[in-house]
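Methods — Computational structure assignment.
A single polypeptide chain was analysed. Its primary sequence is given first, followed by the predicted tertiary structure written as structure tokens.
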Amino acid sequence: MSHQEIEQILAEVGIRPTSVRLLVYEAISNIKHTFSLADLEAANINLEHSSIFRTLTLFHEHHLIHEVDDGSGSTKYCLCTGHGICHEGESHLHFFCTKCHTTYCLRGDELPHITLPDGYTMSSMNFLVKGICPQCGKNSDL
């Protein structure tokens, strides 16, 4: 993804495209599964922990990424695919591999419709399946 494309995505949601924000968005757009702050630090984008954290917080507030609770205790994020805009229809299944501890986005699977009783208001939903990913399954004696 080019810097010009990233600048356009950030501008569409009202974020000023600074060099730090461009670097972080470029790094997360190249990750094919969920990611954590530690993953970005390990990606050698040469930014301080606090700069990455503030940028992730800003991206989350502007619905460019969403949080994934995979039960690992570490906050994971997933890039929204709607040209930088997370929307309700983008809800998808996540799969946590109990062997390699990677959390994958499984897009395209139909999710169940949830009807809440009167008086309940949903603010978020998390669909998570745990098991063994194909790569770990190949390398296992299961």
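Note: Residues 49-61 form the longest helix (13 residues).
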